[in-house]
Design brief:
Elements lengths: L1 H46 L3 H7 L11 E2 L12 E7 L6 E2 L3 E2 H13 L6 E6 L28 E6 L2 E7 L1 H13 L1
Parallel strand pairs: 1-5, 2-5
Antiparallel strand pairs: 2-6, 3-4, 6-7
Helix pairs in contact: 3-4
Length: about 180
């Protein structure tokens, strides 16, 4: 009888221990799911920002309505004006400055400020993300007035004079420096 009582107590103890270990596994599982859920939520906010955040990043508020005329790359040298600027840039939001705003927004702001000047030249834009402009993108840079041979590998600001490329600035840093000069002249 004593052995039966000890066996019964041992079984109860084993059941209690099993229940305790199951309870611990449930708590650990729920904690892990909660942690992964929080990381997923934070990551999704960073990768897929809300519409409100996108409008701030894109600077598409009600006071920001400046747009320059977009052209295709094959019309780089055939504008009516004698002298003008063309900025060929990616329109992608993935190109960020310090994770705040994309270069396109900053370019647009500089161009808007420059266009307010009395003697400002016309600005045109080329969207490098446009399929029709992809033929001009290459790993090697080749700036020439022969459009069939012209190739770029980064954002470029062109100054066109009488149907020929007079000056060009390659890369975000060089473009921002030139735009800053234009605005502050």
């Amino acid at each position: 009888m004593k052995k039966a009582k000890i066996a019964k107590t041992a079984k109860k103890q084993e059941i209690i221990e099993n229940e305790y270990s199951i309870k611990q596994m449930v708590i650990i599982t729920v904690s892990l799911v909660a942690i992964f859920g929080i990381f997923y939520f934070i990551t999704s906010l960073i990768v897929h920002p809300t519409k409100e955040l996108e409008s701030i990043i894109d600077n598409k508020d009600d006071n920001y309505d400046f747009k320059f005329t977009e052209i295709l790359f094959n019309h780089l040298l055939d504008r009516e004006e004698k002298e003008y600027y063309v900025i060929a840039a990616k329109n992608s939001e993935s190109i960020k400055i310090n994770n705040d705003a994309n270069y396109k927004v900053v370019y647009d702001k500089y161009i808007e400020d420059y266009s307010d000047k009395k003697d400002a030249l016309t600005f045109y834009g080329i969207d490098l993300d446009d399929t029709l402009n992809k033929a001009y993108i290459n790993e090697e840079l080749n700036i020439t007035n022969d459009l069939s041979k012209l190739k770029i590998n980064d954002d470029v600001l062109f100054k066109i004079k009488e149907g020929k490329i007079e000056k060009y600035f390659v890369g975000n840093k060089a473009i921002l420096e030139e735009l800053n000069k234009l605005v502050n002249e």
